[in-house]
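Example 4.3 (complexes with small molecules)
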Amino acid sequence: MIRKAKIKDSKQIQDLVNAYAKEDKMLSRSLNDIYEHIRDFFVYEDEEGNIQGCCAMHIVWDNLAEIKALAVSAEFSSHGIARDMVQQCMSEAKALGIKKTFALTYVNGFFKKMGFKEIKRDNLPHKVWRECIYCPKFPGCDEIAVEKDLG
Ligand SMILES: CC(C)(COP(=O)(O)OP(=O)(O)OC[C@H]1O[C@@H](n2cnc3c(N)ncnc32)[C@H](O)[C@@H]1OP(=O)(O)O)[C@@H](O)C(=O)NCCC(=O)NCCS
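Answer. The structure with coenzyme A bound is encoded below.
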């Protein structure tokens, strides 16, 4: 079941994200960061009540939201969970009146299937790079920027 995250999910979200961060697949997150942004998150909860997926929609500006912290456990991959979570994030952004979403990603193939188009990273507002300074790869970022109009 996909639902909005609750504060009690924070540790499981962190474990999921940081396991992939150790493999260099995404940025690691502190509990502090997850607590502060818990309202951004959707999670996928399995039948035993464990969190097996997460995805966040973060508002950047009046016309732009970022899809971030997308992860699905290996056990639950290829079931369309990431697709459905991203869809929920985009629906929430659209309902708020936001016109465009973007992501910085290594899995651009996944986002292309979701209708995102590759863009130049330089086209994104500087504000987007605020948390990048905490990334060990900064300033040599090799993530690909993708965006999608919400219509
Ligand atoms: C990438 C990830 C989120 C995909 O989750 P998932 O739930 O297995 O993906 P879905 O089942 O929703 O896939 C939806 C579609 O995207 C495709 N897809 C999934 N992962 C893909 C990838 N890495 N590259 C290209 N296409 C991909 C699927 O084949 C599927 O296509 P279909 O509709 O034609 O069958 C998951 O593998 C993951 O957590 N990876 C590690 C962390 C990571 O890279 N996060 C992204 C950070 S931006």
